[in-house]
Amino acid sequence: MSWQRDFEQKPRLTIFRGFLWVLPLSFALWLAGGIVGHFTAVSNNANQVVRQEFYPDALLRKYSWFKDTAAGLDKKLADLKVYDTRIQQLRADYNGAARKEWAREDREQLSIWQSEKAGVAASYNSLAAEYNAQMSKFNWRFTNVGDLPPGATTPLPRAFKPYLEE
Length: 166
Fold this sequence. Notes:
The chain is mostly helical. The chain is about 75% helix and about 0% strand. α1 (about 5-10) crosses α2, α2 (about 10-55) packs parallel to α3 (about 55-95) and α3 (about 55-95) runs antiparallel to α4 (about 105-135). The chain is rod-shaped and about 120 Å long.
């Protein structure tokens, strides 16, 4: 029996049977499209993450962050040495005299320098901790020795030690 003869004899039944074939077929196509779409979206998301983390512009941005942070940490260490020199010079000017015997302005200046030095040291420790945390992440390993981008001659420090006053 062909479908044409069935349609002539029983049109409603033939249409119903055709609908029964079309419905599961369209559901299967919809499901297959959804699955393919899902995996395509997952793949696109993975590609986007790789692009954001490992493409040259991202690597350059990260390397620049490390260079800038390392320079900032070096500056803070230099500032701490300047404060140490100033404080030592002020104490040397009084040849070991008790602090209460100093001029009022010098006592105030020493307190200001000590306070500023403590602030720079705290700022250094905070920035060093952030630098060390970022350096330990796997997607920033390129900054380590041997994985330098073209043109870079000096590797960045693996970690900065906290500044501790003795």
